[in-house]
From TrEMBL:
Pfam families: LRR_5 (PF13306). Keywords: Leucine-rich repeat, Repeat, Signal. SMART domains: LRR_TYP, LRRNT. PANTHER family: ANTIGEN BSP, PUTATIVE-RELATED, LEUCINE-RICH REPEAT-CONTAINING PROTEIN 15-LIKE. The keyword Ligase does not apply. This is LRRNT domain-containing protein. Residues 1-21 form the signal peptide. The keyword Repeat applies.
Length: 342
């Protein structure tokens, strides 16, 4: 009986050694709620370590110098749920790089040097919820690049030198709620670009054109996404509010900053009766007319900082304070903040 405690201690020590051996010395490993996480970020790695535990569910490799992802780099890691590779130097991704990541939910590849993604690269990722490809060097996508990503909620492809997007690229993304295509240079937006995005709530289209009045003139551009709650169209050389906004009856947040907005016709706002927050800072707007916000009974925040605003007509606001920054109740419950250009 005297040997029994010694045997127990030996088993415990051996078990601890096995767990430790599975964690590469250059990384930190932990387990929380039965999810094994490997943190190898900011380690000056030039490639994905080959000795990572196969049961890893969260793998963090951000802020390294990794240049490529081969077909074998992740082939053993079939349990991955989250993979972060942002801020690396990745320029090549093999078509089969993610062939075994069928349970992956979050993939972050932002801020790399990716120039091309094969249309079959994401083919087995039916459980993917978030995909970040922003701020790379991508110049084009195939129209079937995102096929099969039926659970995708968030897609970010902004900050790439893309020259438009192909028709049908978002087909089948019926669960997508956030789409960021900012900085994609459009001459013409395909009339059916957003077809099928029946759940879309947030659309970011900042800096997509130098001729916004023409690009957004089509009355059908937002017709297929009437569920939008948030729309961002910063820096698009918009002189007038496009009539195409009128179909967005569910819209609550509208970002129009850094546009000229020199037209005096803002009648389209009356169709946005659920609008709660409106941003028009750094614009050329000069006047808040007495009937500008007729119908916008839910508007609670209006920002016009660093604009050319010089006139607030009687009836547009109830009260004004200070000449440089004003907090003004509109319809006795709304507020705007205005700081003029110096």
């Amino acid at each position: 009986m005297a040997q029994r405690p010694m045997l127990i201690v030996t088993v415990i020590l051996c078990t601890a050694y096995i767990v430790s051996a599975q964690c590469p010395g250059i990384c930190d490993c932990s387990s929380y709620n039965s999810r094994k996480e490997i943190r190898c970020g900011t380690r000056d790695l030039t490639s994905i370590p080959s000795n990572l535990p196969s049961d890893t569910q969260i793998l963090r490799l951000e802020f390294n110098r990794i240049e490529s992802i081969s077909s074998t780099d992740l082939s053993r890691m079939v349990n991955l749920k989250r993979l972060t590779l942002y801020n690396n130097m990745i320029s090549f991704i093999d078509t089969n790089a993610f062939a075994y990541q069928q349970d992956l939910e979050i993939l972050n590849l932002k801020y790399n040097r990716i120039r091309f993604i094969h249309s079959q690269t994401f083919r087995n990722m039916q459980k993917l919820v978030e995909l970040s490809l922003d701020n790379n060097l991508l110049q084009s996508f195939g129209n079937d690049t995102f096929n099969g990503l039926v659970k995708l909620n968030e897609l970010e492809i902004d900050g790439n030198p893309l020259q438009s997007l192909p028709e049908g690229i978002f087909n089948g993304l019926t669960n997508l709620r956030l789409l960021d295509i900012s900085n994609v240079v459009f001459e013409v937006i395909p009339s059916n670009l957003f077809d099928g995005l029946t759940s879309l709530e947030t659309l970011k289209m900042n800096n997509v054109t130098q001729n916004g009045d023409h690009l957004f003139s089509s009355e059908f551009i937002f017709a297929s996404v009437p569920t939008l709650i948030t729309l961002e169209v910063r820096r698009n050389s918009l002189h007038c509010l496009p009539g195409s906004l009128a179909v967005l009856r569910a819209l609550k947040f509208l970002q129009l900053s850094m546009n000229p907005l020199t037209c005096s016709n803002f009648t389209v706002l009356k169709h946005l009766q659920r609008l709660e927050e409106l941003h028009m800072e750094d614009s050329g707007i000069t006047t808040l007319s007495s009937n500008m916000f007729v119908g916008n009974t839910n508007l609670v925040f209006l920002l016009i900082e660093y604009s050319s605003l010089s006139t607030v007509e009687e009836g547009a606001c109830v009260h004004r304070t200070q000449s440089t920054r004003r907090s003004v109740p509109l319809f006795q419950q709304h507020y705007y903040f205005a700081r003029p250009r110096i």
